[in-house]
Amino acid sequence: GAGVSQSPRYKVAKRGQDVALRCDPISGHVSLFWYQQALGQGPEFLTYFQNEAQLDKSGLPSDRFFAERPEGSVSTLKIQRTQQEDSAVYLCASSRSGQGADEQYFGPGTRLTVT
Amino acid sequence: AQTVTQSQPEMSVQEAETVTLSCTYDTSENNYYLFWYKQPPSRQMILVIRQEAYKQQNATENRFSVNFQKAAKSFSLKISDSQLGDTAMYFCAFMKGAGNMLTFGGGTRLMVKP
Question: Which residue did the predictor score with more confidence, B65 or B98?
Answer without folding.
Answer: B65
